[in-house]
Amino acid sequence: MRLFNHLKDHHCEGRRFAHPGHGFGERHERRGGGRIGGPFGGPGRMARLLEHGDLKVLTLHLIHEKPRHGYEIIKAIEDLAGGAYAPSPGVVYPTLTLLEDLGLVTSTTEGTRKRFSITEAGIQALAEQQGEVTTILTRIAAAQSYEPTPALIRATENLKTALRLKLAGKAMAVETARRIADLLDEVARKIEEL
Fold first, then answer.
1. Closest among 84, 115, 82, 120 to 102, alpha carbons compared
2. Are residues 74 and 123 in the same domain?
3. Using CA atoms, how far apart are residues 141 and 159, in angstroms rounded to an integer?
4. Which domain holds residue 166?
5. Are residues 77 and 115 located together in one domain of the fold?
6. Which of the two residues, 86 and 1, has the higher pLDDT score?
7. Would you call 122 helix, strand, or coil by DSSP?
8. pLDDT by residue (tens digit) across 66-78?
């Protein structure tokens, strides 16, 4: 399978692919070290909600729940993320093709669309990744709670504006600067205690 070999040889570092010698969803170490990135695998908050390989595992899980079209998978992930994230068709459809090439799903054509169903091999692969599915679903659910409320956004913007106006272009007494720093430190401590 040419596409598969290309992925394995050039783009597999740090990702979960099923290929000879490795199970479906198994993480491969990057050359020169382990995983990189922020809390969701990268510096972006929602952009890295899914780590490399997570979309394949999540897609297989959603198809196991019920057969789905590609668009239904996009909507299901968007619903899981509370509307805060939806994968693009440009990543979902190649993922479906890969899962089909691996024999984990099959498709039936319905008009201009394909409906994907899980195979026995897909059920077995998913069973081996049940812990990963739980981790992914937990991460998606937790990401919803990270969205700031309008009141928090307003308060943060008010603070930034007050600081900008107070510090803008005029000399400030050392005592005033110290009081501002003390207030900010106090607020930071109180927030940490929440």
1. 120
2. yes
3. 29
4. 151-193
5. yes
6. 86
7. helix
8. 999 999 999 999 8
